[in-house]
Amino acid sequence: MEIKAPRGTRDILGEEVVLWQHLEEVVRRNAHLFGYEEIRTPVFEHTELFTRGVGEETDIVQKEMYTFTDKGGRSITLRPEGTAPVVRAYLEHGFFVRDPRVRWYYLGPMFRYERPQAGRMRQFHQFGFEALGFQDPACDAEIILLAWTIYRELGLSDLSLELNSIGCSLCKPHYVQRLREYLESRKDVLCENCKRRLVENPLRVLDCKNETCQMVFREASFPNIQDFLCAECRRHEERLFSLLKRLGIPFVVNPRLVRGLDYYTRTVFEVKVRALGAQDAIGGGGRYDGLARVLGGPEVPGVGFAAGMERIVLLLERSGFPRKDTFRVYLAPQDEEGEKDLLALSQVLHEAGIPFCLDFASKSLRYHLKRAQKMGVRFVVIAGEEERKNEGFSLKDLVSGEQMLLSREELLGRLRKERKAC
Ligand code: HAM
Q1: What is the pLDDT of residue 323?
Q2: Spatial separation of the C-alpha atoms in residues 84 and 50, rounded to whole Å
């Protein structure tokens, strides 16, 4: 039987690769401009990093992790997200002692055992930013600005930014208590999963997609987390709002936004695009001031963001991107001597920065021309006996059908000109 890629994974090839490269380039350039350095953490980690960091009661830990025991008997998990690994690396390398304020970014595959559909994969890719050691709400604004800048530069439109604060270790417990009481009073209509979570971790109830549970969350008397914020959390939130207004970034406050990971404190946010349908979140993040502590380190404030690259690529595809740089010259030798001449010419083209594709002498000119056409290449350089006699090359333009004999210098000049005009 033919072996296929596992469900929820896919190959990225052909023209789509150009989109990915463009996206990666925009991310890297903006990260550099904002002073973020790249960090590359392992694709797998000790399972405990995620059970502790992301939270035992989250969907990610309960249902979605690729976990296995390795040959040494260790429990290993393919990373479902990048924040816990980044904080683990920060602590492991002692940054809190020698250089406590860092700005890092990453790009790479993440793994979640979810039901695959358009924009939801089991191996998917994220780019993300994490700023550690910064308490100031201006850093939350910086992260949001960075995300916003990247989305805008990619030409994405119809973005909506939802914001909330889920409080800190002082005020959050009051809200959680009130939420538990409220949900207790509505227990009869909640699903079995929510009934269990209501005891263990009531905030996680809000991740439930069940229609009846959702109706409970929409009730007018449902406790609003904004009413429970302490003075410090309120100040943090108000400052962030005023900074975003100053930056001209539109947002709406969604008091039901809690995000599906346990490590958040204060700011949480999500960026959505309506056109994507059910999988409309193209990125999300927030502040996680307690995460370093949970992972066994000191108190280190942190704020970050991650975006799903598959979803962004889907949007780029729909927008008709890319305007590809398709200029390439096809080198078609007629015999072995011509092959030598074109191989030598390829060095000159390389130096001049002109992309080329060299074919070999074993094929006929008819074959070469057909192949060049199939590849979407406009110019074919031919080298055979005739060209040798004239100490030059033939250049055939497949669009006009015109063919001319040129010296090497004339050929280079013409190709340079055509490349510029392209
Ligand atoms: P997250 O919301 O779980 O946050 O994931 C961020 C983004 O990854 C989502 O908004 C979505 O675009 C994309 N994504 C998630 N799951 C899938 C999937 N199965 N297939 C395709 N795309 C997916 C985090 O991961 C946090 N670490 C974000 C963060 C960084 N918070 C602070 N710093």
Answers
A1: 60
A2: 7
Q: Check pocket membership of 85 for ligand 1, CB cut-off 6 A.
A: no
Task: Kindly report, residue by residue over 126-141, the tens digit of the pLDDT.
Answer: 999 999 999 999 999 9
pLDDT value of residue 324: 63
Domain total of the chain: 2
Question: Residue 279's pLDDT band (boundaries 50, 70, 90)?
Answer: confident
In a domain, residue 203? The reply is no
Ligand 1 center–CA 308 separation, angstroms: 6
CA of 190 to the centre of ligand 1 (A): 26
Domain, as residue range, for 149: 14-171+229-319
Quick check: CB of 333 below 6 Å from ligand 1? no
- Whether 196 is in a domain gets the answer no
Q: Is residue 340 part of a domain?
A: yes
For the segment 268-290, the average pLDDT, to the nearest whole number, is 93
- Tokens describing residue 109: 């595959």
Would you say the CB of residue 384 lies under 6 angstroms from ligand 1? no
Distance (Å, whole) CA 132 – CA 287? 10
pLDDT for residue 82: 98
- Does one domain contain both 358 and 391? yes
Query: 267 C-alpha to center of ligand 1: Å?
Result: 16
Ligand 1 pocket test, pick from 45, 111, 287, 311 with the greatest ligand atom count within 8 Å of Cβ, gives 311
Evaluate whether residue 397 is within a structural domain. yes
**Phi-psi domain of 195 (left: phi exceeds 0; alpha: psi -120 through 50; beta: other):** alpha
193 forms beta bridges with none
The residue contributing the CA closest to ligand 1 atom 22 is: 308
Is residue 394 within 6 Å of ligand 1 at its C-beta? no
The rounded percent of the chain whose pLDDT value lies above 90 is 87
Do residues 267 and 387 both lie within one domain?
Answer: no
Confidence of residue 66 (pLDDT cuts 50, 70, 90): very high
